[in-house]
Amino acid sequence: MTVPHPQPTDFEIRRIPYLLTYPLRTAILWPNHPSEVPLAADPTGLHYGLFLASDSSTPVSVISLFIESPPASDFTPQQQSKGKIARFRKFATAAEIQGKGYGGALLSHVFEDAKRNERITGVWCTARVNQVGFYEKRGMSVVEGSESDQKGVKHVRMVMEL
Ligand SMILES: CC(C)(COP(=O)(O)OP(=O)(O)OC[C@H]1O[C@@H](n2cnc3c(N)ncnc32)[C@H](O)[C@@H]1OP(=O)(O)O)[C@@H](O)C(=O)NCCC(=O)NCCS
Q1: Which distant-in-sequence residues (6+ apart) come within 8 Å of 133 by Cβ?
Q2: According to the model, what pLDDT value does residue 19 have?
Q3: Would you say the CB of residue 91 lies under 6 angstroms from ligand 1?
């Protein structure tokens, strides 16, 4: 059975101050490790929130984007010369609305905004291994040999040209 995807009128996506991302980062990503929530780079990042029409002040899905190159040569010099490379981090959707298409809509919006308005031509992330399929469906690829461990949570690096 297919559940219909949310209609465009169901939600709004906009850039938000980084502090507005912290409640979802805490509740969804690191409920037992609050020290993992703030990032030193937060003041320099771009932060996005998805809001349901019923509440335009509390985001139900958040994600943050930082101009940052990956720690290894995941992008060729030619790819890097095309534009900026950005890393997205701390992607979280409120538990009660996960799996309804909002996170995917937010990610698509961020990629589009990054490409169109920030001259970003490549994105990467350190993905939780259980979310690799989600990102692969959206065009990202796993970097061979990039496995890492953060507080016991296994991650791999994933990359994509925009
Ligand atoms: C990862 C995360 C941010 C995605 O947000 P989301 O709102 O659940 O994302 P979506 O609803 O767009 O997609 C989630 C899945 O539901 C599926 N889905 C989306 N809309 C659907 C619909 N209408 N009917 C059925 N399935 C649907 C998607 O296909 C996707 O499945 P897939 O992974 O097999 O592609 C969210 O699940 C989350 O916060 N997870 C916990 C924290 C986490 O792991 N963050 C990422 C760290 S790398």
Answers
A1: none
A2: 98
A3: yes
